Structure formats: C-alpha cells, structure tokens
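User: Here's a chain of 291 residues. Predict its fold as tokens.
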Amino acid sequence: MSVVSLTKNNAAPLAELLEGVSIEVMPRTAAKVEDFTAILPAGTRVYIAHIEGTPIEEMTDTAKRLAAGGFEVMPHFPARIMRDEAQLKEWIDRYVSEAGVETALLLGGSPTTPVGKIDSSIQLLETGYFDGFKRLHIAGHPEGNKDIDAKGTTTNVDEALRWKQAYKDRSDAEMAIITQFAFAAKPVTEWAERLADMGITMPVHAGVAGPAKLQTLIKFAIACGVGPSLGVLQKRAKDLTKLMRPFEPTEVLNDLAVYKAENPDSLIDKIHFFPLGGIKTSAEYMRENGA
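Assistant: Prediction complete.
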C-alpha cells in the first residue's frame, strides 16, 4: 500500500511526538514477521498482547525473540484472565528469567467475568509482585469505559487513576498511561487536560490505530468500545470514493502533534500504535513519518 506522509508544516512536530513510539503484537501476528529488526527501529518498545486462551509458552517465546532482537519487551498482564496470584507469579517469574523482562502493562482485560478472584490492575499492583520492575504502564480510556463505569460517568475510573497516581508517587518504577485507540485528537487532549486538573502527573501515551481497511477498524472500534471519535470512521464510510481505501491515522497524529507543540507541558508524551492492519504496514507508516 502507499503510505501518505504528513504535511511539511507538521512533519517536525510529529517526528518529535513519534520519538519513542511503541507498537503492539500478539504471538500469532509476531510469528508472521521474519525479522523485526528489519522493520522496527532499534530499541522500540513492543507490547505483547495476552489474549485469553494464549498459552504462556507462546507469550514467553515471543518475549525471548523480541528481547534477543534488542527491543524493550512489555507484556500485557490482564487481571481477569488469571486463575489466581500463583499463576500471576509464575508468569512474572517466567518473563523475568527467560526474557529479562523489566516492564509490564497492567490492565483489567476484556473478559467481563474474571476467571479467578483478580479483576483489576489495582489488585495486580497490590500483590507486590511487580516491585522492582523498571517501568509499569496502565490503561486509559479517553472516551470512557462502560465496563468500569456502566452509567457513562467517570467516577470509578477517576478513583482508580488517583489510586495509581498515589502508587506511582511511592514507587521507584516509571509509570505511564497508555490509551485505547481513538480516531480524533480532541477527546484525547481534553481527557489529558482533565487528568492534569485532577492532579495526575503520569505521562499519556496516546493510542492510534495503524493503517487498515475501514471495515476492519470499524469492527475493532465497536468491539473495543471506542466512543465519539468512531464518528470519524462512520463519516468516511459514507463516502464511496474512500470506502475501499485504507484509513491512515494521519489527521489525528497531525492534530496531536500540533497540540503538543502548542502545549509542551501537556501530559500527552508519546504515541502507541495498534497495528490493526498488520505489523509491517504500521511499521512502514511509522518509518515514513519520522519514527
């Protein structure tokens, strides 16, 4: 596919925003990539998504492969897919001993009913098993999370973020908030401003969907609970001339880059790619636009 570069006026701000960009893989998608060093910048932070039912052996094998390639490996630890604390400890021990993992993304996870007694990232942190990790990231939802706040408020999410901010303040670990992908900048920037007003200081890594077919993005957006910014895709779907062309995150990235340049103290710090249209496609787009 052809990769559309950003406009010349915004190229510099975006290149700065894309410094330290990260990307997400799963074991089955990683297996399709022959050589990560050929497509990703050295030292790129690579998250490994743990989908329910994926054997831990596949997760650690992927982690070992990425670590051997010189990448910073950040596996997901979804609370609701774990049987108990013993399984959590086993997973952590294997990642550390087999792949030298020092970073992790802690999240509730997609299942609405927990497999065991652990159902939140707060409970994961409370175990103490992540003490000594160099970096810990948590999930953020600029457009809301109805799994946590069923009535559409932000009460529970805000309370959880304040708890995690307090944890960060007493921890030696670097912490950041990685957001669900969005298709417009405004919900993300307004959310980041609201967090700052709440006293949150953790940097925000804004999630964007990598280039993909429009139908693919709409499917994932609905499944993942993307909010108002989904309208960007729905509007595009009405234009038959654009329906069959891949959708790229150029506009949202441009807007975030300009916003960051104009608001250098914003919590928005980095960009994270969800490669919904394929890892190689997203990697190519990242390279072409300054990563």
